[in-house]
Every structure is written in structure tokens, then in C-alpha cells.
Amino acid sequence: MTTHTEAEIASQPACWRRAIENVPSGALPRPGERVAVVGCGTSWFIAMAYATLRERAGLGETDAFAASETPVGRRYDHVLALTRSGTTTEVLDLLGRTTASRTTAITADPGTPITSVAGQVIVLDYADERSVVQTRFATTQLALLRASLGEDLGQAVADAERAVSAPLDRELVEAEQITFLGAGWSVGLAHEAALKMREASRSWTEAYPAMEYRHGPISIAGPGRVTWMFGEAPGGLREQVEATGGGFRESGLDPMAELVMAQRVSVARAFARGLNPDEPLHLTRSVILSS
Questions:
Q1: Cα gap 136→113, rounded to integer Å
Q2: 184 shares its domain with 66
Q3: Any idea what the CATH number is for the domain that residue 141 is in?
Q4: Nearest Cα to 179, choosing from 216, 243, 238, 225?
Q5: Are both 176 and 118 inside the same structural domain?
Q6: Are residues 29 and 56 in the same domain?
Q7: Is residue 286 domain-resident?
Q8: How many CB atoms within 10 Å of residue 156?
């Protein structure tokens, strides 16, 4: 029987195509605006990726924050909130207190409190999920955001098609420990991949910027452990990891498609441990805090 998580992972290429074809006009950050992108958990990591991409595109200062850590007194023209559920306490609180002249939320559910506190709302209901573990909503909103920056995502979608059907490497499924690395915008995706492994399979995973990995964290590399690079690895890194006896993965796929592969591995690791990836330990779809 296919789990909700498996089905949602497999649907991502189709969701990305729909997002790319329906980029909204007016609601997303405009060139030159100073922008804060906020979210919690997965949404924070997607915010990190978008913030880096927008600045790299020369469209204006863009900061990413966990909603609970956003400096409310700092001046921003636009606050963009990412929230699948539309009910997350920290996001709602921030939007209610921000002094930004424009606010936008991207959500999967229009019938939630987010619609009453955000100035504009973008609804990706077709990418909503039944699983607590977030997969396709996260990547679909990033596909939308990348397309809004003028990126051609044709190769990314093609890579995702490969990622949802390619055989899984048993080394990844059986590894004692996996460390995810990224550079630039893929640092956020490395953190998200690690989160998926923890949520779905309770695995020991870590994530770092690739150049920082050699400043201490490489000490955990060794036989039976894997270092997984999202994007192009810095020169010499593979050799350093392999010298420890550890495995190293660098596929050349678009980092967003590489995240899809990591999602699949997280599910396979869950099954190998007798776990149901649809039922992550201690988690619910949304974190709603009591006042």
C-alpha cells in the first residue's frame, strides 16, 4: 500500500509544472524591495533558498528568518510568509506586528487565519498534503518563487522526473549517518533534506554549508556514513571525505530534484526501520501555541 508521503513525493514534477505556468503577478516581491521571507520548519529552509536566489538575481536585499526570530523593528518593504497550514502561531503573530507596507502569504489552505492577517495570499491548494511530513508543498512553492525570478526550470523538472523513478542507492538507505551539504541557495535545501530524514525515519542527520563542513563537522565522517552534496562540491572535498572511509554523493541534479531523491531515501529508511513515514514521532501538521 502506497503511503500519502510516497504519493505526494511522486506528484512533484506535475505540481512544479503547474506552479511555473501560474506565477501570480503583483503579490510577490517587486524588484528593489527590501524583503524578509519568514516561515517555520520546512518553510524557513525554503525561505533561505529563495532569499539567496533573489539577492543573487540582483532584485534587492532579501533576508530569511524563522518567524519566531524575525527582528520586528527592522525596516522591510515587504514580508513574505510561507505557511502550508495557514495556522502557525509564530507566522500569524509576526504578520500581525510587522510594520512592512506589504505582506504576502503563500499557503495551501485559504480557509485559515492567514487570509485575515496577510495583505495578499497565494493559494497552492493543489500542492496540499495529507502527510504531516511536508514534501510537495515545499518544493512547489520554491518552483513558483524560482520562476518568479525569471529562472527556466525545464531542466529542474526533467531532473525531478528522474529523481522520482530512479533506483535508490542502498548505501544511502543503509547508512548509519548522513550529512547534507549545500552552497549558496542549496544550503537551505540541505537543511530541509536533513529535516525530512529526521521526521520520516528518525535518522541521525546533519546539514552544513559545504565550505564549513571541513571546519569541524567532517570529524564524524567515516565508514558506514555518507556525505551528500546538493549542487557542485568544492574542490577536494570528495577526496577528503573518502579518505575517512565515508561515502560521498554528488549527482549533478538540480538541487531541488536532489531534495526529491532525499525525500525518497527518507521514506525507504523509515520502511527499513519498520516506521510509517505518514506518522512522524511527536509531530502534527501545524504548531499552534496556546496563549
A1: 22
A2: no
A3: 3.40.50.10490
A4: 225
A5: no
A6: yes
A7: no
A8: 23
**What CA–CA distance (Å, rounded) separates 142 from 138?**
6
Q: Is residue 280 part of a domain?
A: no
The helix-helix angle for 136-148 and 12-21 (nearest 10°) equals 30
Please check whether residues 65 and 159 belong to one and the same domain: no
Question: Left, alpha or beta for 41 (phi > 0: left; psi -120 to 50: alpha)?
Answer: left
Residue range of the domain that includes 228: 154-272
- Per-residue confidence of the chain (291 residues) as pLDDT tens digits? 789 999 999 999 999 999 999 999 899 999 999 999 999 999 999 999 999 999 999 999 999 999 999 998 899 999 999 999 999 999 999 999 999 999 999 999 999 999 999 999 999 999 999 998 999 999 999 999 999 999 999 999 999 999 999 999 999 999 999 999 999 999 999 999 999 999 999 999 999 999 999 999 999 999 999 999 999 999 999 999 999 999 999 999 999 999 999 999 999 999 999 998 888 765 555 545 555
The number of folded domains in the chain is 2
User: Do 267 and 175 belong to one domain?
Assistant: yes
Amino acid occupying residue 218 = I
Q: Which residues, listed in sequence order, are joined to residue 227 by a DSSP beta bridge?
A: 179, 248
In this structure, are 164 and 256 located in the same domain? Answer: yes
How far is residue 41's CA from residue 247's CA, in Å, rounded to a whole number?
28
Could you tell me if 57 and 161 lie in one domain? Answer: no
Task: Report the residue count for the chain.
Answer: 291
Residue 201 shares a structural domain with residue 226: yes
Name 208's bridge partners: 181
CA separation (Å) from 33 to 46, 100, 131, 187, 287? 19, 11, 35, 23, 30
> Among 267, 139, 252, which residue's Cα sits nearest to residue 196?
267
